[in-house]
């Protein structure tokens, strides 16, 4: 009877097995999530996880996309502004020439270097490319109106990108532009 009483009075050590199991599962889930996102299986921008140049056939298997006569820039790391749109399947990228904006006197920075590209449906790529001067005019007008505090704010890039997207969609039409991608935003 004294042995049973001694065991009841001694504190029990908690098992570390649930903690170890939880840690292993968290690491496995994180690794799996990273792989899924980086390989394009998740959060692929609405293209259903397809890689560029692939389409899903009626049987669900990947088949190479048909050549539609548009040049793609696969393997050519630098698409230069003015070289025309780069078409990838259902959408194209129209790169805009870089803008250099002079800041007002007294600002901590003197210039803003800004470069962007437009993601457009492939059928409108040539039309959007022809409208580049109007697009640049709208972007330049907005960027020049910004104060130094607007550009130096913590969320400046998000706000500027949203405003530029809105203005470019007004120039081109909402159906002719999917997104505005900021390639360079440098304060000098």
UniProtKB/TrEMBL annotation:
It is found in: Cell inner membrane; Cell membrane. Residues 46-81 are annotated as: Disordered. It is a single-pass membrane protein. One of its GO terms (biological process) is chemotaxis. The keyword Transit peptide does not apply. The chain crosses the membrane at residues 20-43. InterPro entries: FliL. Residues 53-79 have a biased composition (Basic and acidic residues). Keywords: Cell inner membrane, Cell membrane, Cell projection, Chemotaxis, Cilium, Flagellar rotation, Flagellum, Membrane, Transmembrane, Transmembrane helix. One of its GO terms (cellular component) is bacterial-type flagellum basal body. Controls the rotational direction of flagella during chemotaxis. Belongs to the FliL family. This is Flagellar protein FliL. It comes from Roseivivax halodurans JCM 10272.
């Amino acid at each position: 009877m004294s042995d049973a009483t001694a065991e009841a009075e001694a504190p029990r050590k908690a098992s570390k097995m649930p903690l170890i199991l939880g840690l292993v599962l968290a690491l496995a889930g994180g690794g799996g999530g990273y792989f899924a996102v980086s390989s394009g299986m998740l959060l692929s921008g609405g293209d259903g996880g397809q890689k560029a140049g692939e389409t899903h056939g009626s049987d669900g298997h990947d088949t190479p996309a048909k050549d539609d006569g548009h040049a793609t820039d696969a393997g050519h790391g630098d698409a230069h502004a003015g070289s025309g749109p780069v078409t990838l399947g259902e959408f194209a990228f129209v790169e805009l020439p870089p803008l250099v904006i002079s800041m007002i006197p007294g600002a901590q920075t003197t210039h803003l270097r800004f470069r962007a590209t437009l993601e457009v449906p492939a059928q409108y790529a040539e039309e959007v490319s022809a409208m580049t001067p109007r697009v640049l005019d709208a972007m330049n007008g907005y960027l020049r109106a910004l104060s130094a505090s607007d550009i130096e704010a913590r969320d400046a890039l998000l706000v500027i990108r949203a405003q530029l997207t809105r203005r470019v969609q007004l120039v081109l039409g909402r159906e002719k532009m999917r997104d505005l991608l900021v390639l360079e935003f440098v304060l000098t």
